[in-house]
Design a protein that fits this description.
Distance between the termini: 45 Å
Bound molecules: pyridoxal-5'-phosphate
Strand order of the largest sheet: 2-8-7-6-5-3-4
Largest sheet: 7 strands, mixed
Shape: globular
CATH superfamily of the largest domain: Type I PLP-dependent aspartate aminotransferase-like (Major domain)
Length: 391
């Protein structure tokens, strides 16, 4: 009955663990959750206020499919000010229901059946299903702990064939926390120019960076703007995951195609949410800074705790809010390990293999949870690992 297209897409690999965690909670077990992919803060008040005002003023009708002009302008201003890329809000910017829809629309607009799409691995869980839905072929470029999981341009070049159409970049990275430097990006840009490869740059974690890490948008380098769709959104920056608002900016032809897809599928982002998004982009950034400061403190703590477990290694993440820790000295099967930690320690983590083959032997711990939970959770993991036979 179902289409081949949808049959190619597997249910989320983490579903099983999530369902088990839920079942244990229902039995009264107290589970500490390191699985969350969203900030544990409230949306700043001025953004909520803008939403209420828009509702009270009756801003409840369809909007243009690309988004209200005011929000497209705010996005273009932000990209010019912070990312040093200049886009025309009239035709080069589209507002989407989350960065996720921007990624999906960009892939649907660019990928023909059989086109190869280069994806750095470990990869965020939705890239591959999206490429499969577009009948494209995912081609993986491994990244390694020894390189702090940075994507190396030589590794990209190795995977290029005549069929390579697209590269999906994600810096800061989920799940590894890697942040690509300007030099890294220049090397990658060169490979893409040489081989006429288009790039989708997923920059959803751009504000969540630490130490001396710098966020660089690949579209701002040289002539790259003509071959890059820059994707971003408000979910992580302003703790607005449930609001569903993101955006993409790029070459007119691609943005127009993405807008067409949106017009015939979801129409537009909720009207009053768009008004609130203007307030987010044009408003103060002190709450973002506060949130990043809290993440930073938790990051240092969780990584030092992980590293103090004999045999475990963990790269210090330079961005996002995940620690990607290597437990292969104990267990190569990350699903088995995640199940063990859930059942024996009452701690929910995401198995590394959920992010592709290169993630095997690792687990992802989100530190978007309170310091109190992190302390208790790490104590439980340490105790559980003391009882686990080393491989
Ligand atoms: C790397 C990455 N890209 C995109 C998204 C989707 O974000 P949004 O809520 O804006 O759709 C996520 C959310 O977890 C993410 O981790």
């Amino acid at each position: 009955m179902l289409s081949d297209r949808i049959n190619r897409v597997k249910p989320s690999a983490t579903l099983e663990i999530t369902a088990k965690a839920k079942a244990l909670r229902a039995q009264g077990r107290e589970i500490i959750n390191f699985g969350a992919g969203e900030p544990d803060f409230d949306t700043p008040e001025h953004i909520k206020e803008a939403l209420r005002k828009a509702l009270d003023e009756g801003f409840i009708y369809y909007t243009p499919a690309a988004g209200i002009p005011e929000l497209r302008e705010a996005v273009a201003e932000k990209l010019e000010r912070e990312n040093k890329i200049s886009y025309d809000p009239e035709g080069e910017v589209v507002i989407t229901p989350g960065a996720k829809m921007a990624l999906y629309a960009a892939i649907m607009a660019l990928v023909n059946p059989g086109d190869e799409v280069v994806i750095p691995s470990p990869w965020w869980v939705s890239y591959v299903p999206m490429v499969q839905l577009a009948d494209g072929k995912p081609v993986f470029v491994p990244t390694y702990e020894e390189d702090e999981f940075r994507l190396l341009s030589d590794a990209v070049a190795e995977k290029v064939t005549r069929k390579t159409k697209l590269l999906i970049l994600n810096s800061p990275n989920n799940p590894t926390g890697a942040v690509l430097s300007r030099e890294d990006l220049k090397g990658i840009a060169e490979v893409c120019e040489d081989h006429d490869i288009f790039i989708i740059s997923d920059e959803i974690y751009e504000y969540i960076i630490y130490d001396d890490a710098e966020h660089v948008s690949i579209a701002s380098l040289g002539n790259m703007k003509e071959r890059v769709v820059t994707v971003n959104g408000l979910s992580k920056a302003y703790s607005m995951t449930g609001w569903r608002v993101g955006y993409a900016a790029g070459p007119r032809e691609v943005i127009k195609a993405m807008t067409r897809l949106q017009a015939h599928s979801v129409s537009n982002v909720t009207s009053f949410v768009q008004k609130a998004a203007v307030a987010a982009l044009r408003g103060p950034s002190d709450e973002v800074e506060r949130m990043v400061k809290a993440f930073d403190e938790r990051r240092r703590y969780i990584v030092s705790e992980l590293r103090s477990i004999p045999g475990v290694s963990c790269v210090m993440p330079r961005g996002a809010f995940y620690a990607f820790a290597n437990f292969s000295a104990y267990e190569k099967d990350s699903f088995k390990l995640a199940n063990y930690l859930l059942e024996e320690a009452g701690v929910a983590v995401v198995p590394g293999a959920a992010f592709g083959e290169e993630g095997e032997g690792y687990i992802r711990l989100s530190y978007a949870t309170s310091m109190e939970n992190i302390k208790a959770g790490m104590e439980r993991i340490r105790e559980a690992m003391e009882r686990y036979p080393r491989a």
